[in-house]
Each structure stands twice: as C-alpha cells, then as structure tokens.
Amino acid sequence: MAKSSKTPLPFGEDIDATVILELQNRIDNNSELINKIVDDLVSQYCSGLDTYMAFIKELLNSDQPPTDVELDDFTLNLPVLLYFTGEAQEALGIKEDVAKAVRQEMYNEVYDAATGTIADKTAAAELASQAEYITHIAYQRAYKKVKLRMEAANEMLQSVKKVISRRMIEYEIGRVDSGRIGGFNG
Question: How many helices, marked H, and strands, marked E, lie in the chain?
Fold first, then answer.
C-alpha cells in the first residue's frame, strides 16, 4: 500500500472564512424571518396574557409591594387568561399537526414522482418540502413558546397564592392579643 504524498493541512488552513461568514449571514437572516413568524403567532395567541403579565411586572417593579386588592386581582385574572390561552394553544397545536401533515404529503408526492436511487429520491423530496418543513417548525416553536408563557403565568399564580397565604397568617398573628402569646397573662 503506497503512502499518500499529500499531507493533510492543519484544520482551518483549508477553510474559506468568506464562505463561513456568508453561511452565518444566511442562517441569521433565515432565523430572523422564522423568529418573526413565531413571535407573530405567539403574540396572536398570547396577547392578553402578555399584557397582563407586563402589568404585573410593572406593579412589582414599583417601590411598594402589591396591595391585597392587586393580589386578589391577580388570582382572579390569571386563571381566566390561562384558560383562554390554553384554548388558543390547542388551536395552535392543531395548526402544527396540519403543517406536519402538509409537509409529509409534499415529501411523499415528490418522493414517489422522483427517479433514481433511494438517496436521490430522498434528497429531491427533502428539498421540495423544505418550505413546508420550515412552516411546521415555526408552528412547533410557537406552540412551545405559548406553553412556556402559560407555565410562567401559572408559576406567577402559585406565587401570588403563597403571598396571600403568608399575609393572612401575618394578619392573624397581628390580631392576637400580645398578652396571650406564650401563655403569659400579665
């Protein structure tokens, strides 16, 4: 067996930085487009919840802790918003499923019509169904983002409930006659 007279170049010497930068640019541009589509979908399905969470954030960023009335407002409004956002999330999930089916349909049609080897047919089908695949990904990511927002809002609701419970205990302790604490009457 003859040794190759050509010695391999160290990693990086044969890489064209321009190609890498152009690819990075293409990825960034395409990602920006997909992010915009996903953000538009999420905004469409979560606008009420987003607005209310921003309202809560604004109140929490003030110097004063939330009042009891504000905490009551949170505990009444968050479940309602979660209910409707959950319904919207399921509608988004249906669209994700349909997008997946449309992608698979396009893939199968092109695969069946393509000629050549299995690899040739697979490559043709994947290339032809790329837009459908990206659309499916957009719906999938939007679904996940809506789910994350709902989980965060639910965490907020649980935190509010804990604060209300703590305040109720503090109020009860404050109402107890200080002379009765520890069993001493005076």
Answer: 4, 0
Q: Is residue 184 part of a domain?
A: no
**45 in Cβ contact with 89 (< 8 Å):** yes
CB-based contact 126:86 (threshold 8 Å) = no
Residues ≥6 apart with Cβ < 8 Å to 85: 45, 46, 48, 49, 146, 149, 150, 153
pLDDT confidence tier of residue 186, bands split at 50, 70 and 90? very low
- Please report whether residue 57 resides in a domain: yes
pLDDT digits (tens, 9 = 90+) for 165-184: 999 998 888 877 555 555 55
Do the Cβ atoms of 53 and 77 come closer than 8 Å?
no
| CA separation for the pair 94, 98 (Å, rounded) | 6
State the pTM of this model.
Answer: 0.77
The residue range of the domain holding 75 is 31-174
Which whole-number Å values give the CA distances from 80 to 34, 57, 96, 161, 186, in the listed order? 30, 18, 24, 15, 51
In a domain, 41, yes or no: yes
CA distance 133 to 104: 9
Q: How many domains does the chain have?
A: 1
Q: Does 66 map to a domain?
A: yes
- DSSP symbols for 10-25: PTTTT--HHHHHHHHH
Q: Are 79 and 157 in contact (CB under 8 A)?
A: yes
